[in-house]
């Protein structure tokens, strides 16, 4: 009989569960009920009891805001346009360096009870004062253009960051130039950089937008001079320039020689150069433009002289490409749960560290939703977790502003279906679970849906043809080979064909229309075997075994390559990676991570080369080549089940 996981429980207090408080779900019976934990530390020698309440800060803010709304104990009135806003100097000063300087310095406002605030929109000021008292801000298309300038003036950094994150997500070819100018005006450097790169990557569409026609000349030159401009045809760059000039020929034709210095005429075809460029009246009317064309003709007609004619206009552009990258998240290493995260870039075949999670997580569920990486639940080495973190590759940062699941879960399966995140099964330290919850990013809430027919910890999940599959795992007694799938249209689970082998802590992923299930552990040992499910025939068939036994293995597809990552072979934790070759039906070793990982999660994100994680912004310097322990890890007595 298989034991439930008690390996991480403190020796004196038994199983613990750390619950993250989430007040937004208070009124929904199907959602997470609010609760508060109080960490109690007892010093037996000194007979002390120290309490830290995590509801105190919320209670304090709520009551300060109530005092503000009831106009009690307010010691300043802000006059913004026709609005009079009562507030407390201490609260404003604590949230805004602008107000702190105003109220604590020698300015006249420090002695006034009514203060006129200029250059800030009335509605934006109301939103920011509300944020100071509630820590909550809603940014949308209607308010962002007034909210960001106001937040910049008041130096409320968190709101500035939120506005910039919102604008990043709104980028498209029709607005990226406007967002770039807006970011430049308000000194939002990260947003400016990302808008610049977005413009270069999508220039073929940007040049067709109305915003492009009204670009200032300096910005136009910045764009077309970039080596990273994503244009395969220099003819199209020339046509874009002439389109910009034609919008106001009389005013703009004087700038044509200066602009065309950055068009790479030698890389055009001879036919286009002669028939289109040379015959253009604006080109023929300017000597500098004609000289540029003659230079290009010489380059094309004298190939033996090209080595001596190299320069910026003969250099081919190297446009930014998008690529899929793999993330290995958390797990068990060196006898403890870890928070480390590393990224595999297939263009360089290198693993390197990125920002770690805020919590150590083993048995964590990982999935990608809206190109953001979610880490759900797990075990931190002491407690079972219900908290959730989210990673943004554009900023290389984890955020904790995601609602927690209703119960603590480790060995949980997580997948994405219909734009929502699903947390499936797992265990909470007391029992094995068949519970399933759905997270909707638009409402930022988890809701329970129909439970599975079988309790499953160490379950693997996958989405194929609109169904959510729960594969194998353990029911708390023994490993399973059964499989069931969820139909979101009927909100029901139904069984499908079982695997040929019982597997818990297996890896699974959809590849070429099949669900692949690899590794895991049966009743006796760790497994290297693999099989795949055909949804058309409702049958499982064997696939060649991996080179290593792998329990707690991650499985993912990166740039159409199926990869098995890490795990445990029965003797040691693994950092090796295997690549499946479908043509030869074989597994090949493909390097290894920097950290050994058992029970970590994996996720694949599509990134541009200008994203922070690829450019090294906020990366963990020096950590990519260091493993915490390259010896075989023998701390297996602590680990009964993930």
Automatic annotation (TrEMBL):
Keywords of the record: Kelch repeat, Repeat
Superkingdom of source: Eukaryota
Biased composition annotated in UniProt, kind: Polar residues: 7-28
GO cellular component entries: cytoplasm
InterPro entries named in the record: BACK, BTB-kelch_protein, BTB/POZ_dom, Kelch-typ_b-propeller, Kelch_1, SKP1/BTB/POZ_sf
Name of the protein described by the UniProt record: BTB domain-containing protein
Matches recorded under SUPFAM superfamilies: Kelch motif (SSF117281), POZ domain (SSF54695)
Keyword Repeat found: yes
Chain ranges of the BTB domain: 74-141
Start and end residues of each stretch annotated as Disordered: 1-28, 621-642
One Pfam entry name: Kelch_1
Organism: Rotaria sordida
């Amino acid at each position: 009989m298989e034991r439930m996981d008690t390996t991480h429980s403190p020796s004196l207090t038994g199983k613990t569960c750390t619950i993250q408080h989430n007040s937004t779900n208070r009124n929904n019976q199907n959602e997470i009920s609010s609760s508060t934990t109080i960490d109690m530390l007892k010093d037996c020698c000194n007979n002390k009891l120290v309490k830290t309440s995590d509801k105190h800060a919320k209670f304090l803010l709520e009551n300060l805001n109530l005092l503000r709304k009831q106009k009690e104990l307010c010691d300043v009135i802000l006059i913004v346009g026709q609005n009079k806003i009562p507030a407390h100097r201490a609260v404003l000063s604590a949230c805004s360096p602008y107000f702190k300087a105003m109220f604590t310095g020698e300015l006249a406002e420090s002695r006034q009870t009514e203060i006129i605030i200029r250059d800030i929109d009335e509605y934006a000021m109301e939103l920011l004062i509300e944020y100071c008292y509630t820590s909550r801000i809603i940014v949308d298309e209607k308010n962002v253009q007034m909210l960001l300038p106001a937040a910049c003036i008041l130096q409320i950094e968190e709101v500035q960051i939120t506005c910039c994150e919102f604008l990043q997500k709104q980028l498209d070819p029709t607005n990226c130039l406007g967002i770039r100018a807006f970011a430049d005006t308000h000194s939002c450097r990260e947003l400016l950089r990302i808008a610049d790169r977005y413009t270069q990557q999508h220039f073929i569409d940007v040049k067709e937008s109305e915003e492009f026609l009204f670009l200032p000349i300096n910005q136009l030159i910045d764009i077309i001079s970039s080596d990273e401009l994503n244009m395969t045809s220099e003819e199209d760059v020339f046509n874009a320039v002439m389109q910009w000039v034609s919008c106001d020929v009389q005013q703009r034709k004087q700038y044509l020689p200066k602009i065309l210095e950055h068009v790479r005429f030698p890389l055009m075809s001879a036919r286009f150069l002669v028939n289109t460029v040379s015959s253009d009246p604006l080109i023929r009317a300017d000597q500098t433009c004609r000289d540029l064309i003659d230079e290009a003709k010489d380059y094309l007609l004298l190939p033996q002289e090209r080595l001596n004619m190299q320069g910026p206009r003969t250099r081919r552009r190297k446009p930014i490409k998008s690529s899929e990258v793999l993330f290995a998240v958390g797990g068990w290493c060196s006898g403890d749960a870890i928070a480390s995260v590393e990224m595999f870039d297939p263009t360089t075949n290198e693993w390197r560290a990125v920002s770690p999670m805020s919590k150590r997580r083993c048995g964590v569920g990982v999935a990608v939703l809206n190109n953001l990486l979610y880490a759900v639940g797990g075990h931190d080495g002491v407690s079972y977790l219900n908290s959730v973190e989210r990673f943004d590759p554009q900023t290389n940062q984890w955020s904790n502003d995601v609602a927690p699941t209703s119960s603590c879960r480790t060995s949980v399966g997580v997948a994405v279906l219909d734009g929502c995140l699903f947390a499936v099964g797992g265990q909470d330290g007391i029992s094995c679970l068949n519970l399933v919850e759905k997270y909707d990013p638009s409402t930022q809430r988890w809701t329970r849906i129909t439970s599975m027919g079988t309790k499953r910890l160490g379950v693997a999940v996958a989405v194929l043809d609109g169904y959510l599959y729960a594969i194998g795992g353990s029911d708390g007694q023994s490993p399973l080979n059964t499989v069931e799938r969820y139909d979101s249209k009927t909100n029901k689970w139904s069984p499908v064909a079982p695997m040929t082998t019982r597997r818990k802590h297996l890896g699974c992923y959809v590849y070429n229309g099949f669900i692949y299930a690899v590794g895991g552990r049966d009743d006796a040992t760790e497994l290297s075997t693999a099989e795949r499910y055909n949804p058309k025939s409702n049958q499982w068939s064997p696939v060649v075994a991996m080179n290593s036994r792998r329990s707690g293995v991650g499985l993912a597809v990166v740039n159409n390559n199926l990869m098995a990552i890490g795990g445990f072979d029965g003797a040691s934790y693994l950092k090796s990676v295997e690549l499946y070759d479908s043509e030869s039906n074989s597994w090949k070793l493909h390097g290894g991570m920097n950290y050994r990982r058992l029970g970590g999660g994996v996720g694949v994100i599509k990134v541009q080369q200008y994203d922070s994680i690829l450019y090294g912004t906020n990366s963990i310097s020096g950590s990519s080549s260091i493993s915490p322990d390259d010896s075989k890890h023998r701390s297996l007595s602590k680990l009964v089940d993930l």
